[in-house]
Specification:
Layout: H1 10-21, E1 25-29, H2 38-41, E2 43-52, E3 56-57, E4 72-79, E5 83-87, E6 93-100, E7 103-108, H3 122-132, E8 138-141, E9 145-150, E10 154-160, E11 165-166, E12 174-175, E13 181-187, E14 191-197, E15 202-204, E16 207-209, E17 212-219, E18 224-232
Parallel strand pairs: 1-7
Antiparallel strand pairs: 2-4, 3-5, 5-6, 6-7, 8-13, 9-10, 10-18, 11-12, 13-17, 14-15, 14-18, 16-17
């Protein structure tokens, strides 16, 4: 993932291309493409920009996501071989994926992935979740945010349910007690030997479904659960 504003040299352009062709994934945005060829990006950058505050993900098999947020400005682009992953509601590309050899170049039309308030946008956070989903063998399903840490015997997964809690500027927070979320955790490359939820101290049942071991738990509104997974190869 590229950081900062860069003037690409010929040598670095070749290194990026070779990296992608060998199976790597390159992630960059509209503020970082000066000097990069269109065939690497798979898009043509137009001179015009536009504004939006919402987006939709086109990833197949994914549940509808709320990607609305602050106003952001994006570079208008034309697809030149790349596929759109995230678009505006009317359908203009915001995030694209261009297959290069065995790998891919992921391009975001949002400079620095930021909105007009200079904060990261919901669609950029969603993009990063897609990109980094395969960085660990942990797979988490459910409407939760999560953190993953490695332990000596497996993994520690911290789950946050941000649903059902309204915090006004004055007064007590209002909680919708029915806003429970069900989360499922599984491992891609190994099996779960056992699982323990640290907050309650209780073990979790490990179930096998289609050859994949997984654990499922409910998290109350505004709640946090920490799950320790012991794995075996």
């Amino acid at each position: 993932m590229v950081g900062g504003h860069i003037d690409w040299s010929t040598q670095w352009i070749q290194r990026l291309t070779d990296y992608a062709k060998a199976g790597g994934t390159v992630v960059l945005n509209a503020a970082q493409v000066k000097g990069l060829p269109e065939q690497l990006l798979g898009v043509h950058l137009a001179e015009a920009t536009a504004e939006a505050h919402n987006a939709r993900c086109l990833s197949s098999g994914e549940a509808p996501q709320d990607l609305s947020g602050q106003i952001f400005r994006y570079q208008k682009i034309d697809l030149k071989g790349a596929e759109a992953l995230i678009t505006t509601i009317p359908g203009e590309p915001l995030v694209t994926v261009n297959r290069v050899g065995k790998g891919a170049v992921v391009f975001s039309a949002l400079p620095d992935l930021l909105g007009e308030d200079e904060r990261i946008t919901p669609l950029a956070a969603h993009l990063l979740a897609h990109v980094f989903a395969d960085a660990t063998p942990i797979k988490v399903r459910g409407d939760v945010e999560y953190l993953i840490n490695r332990s000596d015997t497996g993994w520690i997964v911290t789950l946050f349910n941000n649903n059902g809690v309204l915090k006004p500027q004055q007064g007590l927070a209002q909680v919708d007690r029915s806003a429970y979320v069900t989360a499922t955790i599984s491992l891609r490359s190994s099996q779960i030997h056992n699982a323990v939820e640290w907050v309650s101290g209780k073990p979790l049942e490990v179930r096998n479904q289609n050859g994949e071991n997984k654990v499922t738990l409910g998290i109350p509104p505004g709640g946090v659960s920490i799950v320790e997974l012991s794995s075996r190869n």
